[in-house]
Backbone:
């Protein structure tokens, strides 16, 4: 699912413009799988699947696969609809230098929500 992140984000010009000052590498944990996402000027440059040996990244965002699947469902249930709702329920873990994440919170919320399945 996260492999589509580059395509979905980069085709959204408004979102890329919103993150035009972001040049970061983040680590995304989906259950036991880890991905390194490189962002350059708001666009997703690459999504690489781990495992990684001592990866370099600005911050990491980790949750069980089941929680990500709920978050990415067309209409997530309460408590699974937002990154901070997952954090409040202790299903999401953030680590590293969170300054970029917090300053650009709406950008990152929209980046991860872009993977949400759309109802037809």
Residues:
């Amino acid at each position: 699912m996260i492999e589509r992140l580059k395509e979905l984000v980069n085709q959204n010009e408004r979102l890329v413009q919103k993150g035009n000052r972001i040049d970061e590498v983040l680590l995304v944990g989906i259950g036991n799988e880890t991905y390194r996402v490189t962002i350059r000027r708001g666009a997703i440059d690459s999504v690489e699947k781990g495992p990684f040996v001592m990866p370099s990244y600005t911050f990491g965002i980790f949750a069980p696969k089941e929680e990500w699947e709920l978050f990415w469902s067309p209409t997530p249930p309460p408590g699974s609809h937002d990154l901070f709702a997952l954090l409040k329920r202790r299903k999401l873990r953030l680590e590293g230098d969170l300054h970029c994440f917090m300053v650009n919170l709406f950008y990152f919320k929209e980046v991860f929500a872009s993977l949400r399945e759309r109802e037809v």
Q: What stands out?
A: The CA atoms of residues 99 and 105 lie 10 Å apart. The helical segments are 5-10, 13-18, 65-71, 83-88, 99-103, 105-113. The chain has one domain: 2-113. The longest strand covers residues 23-30.
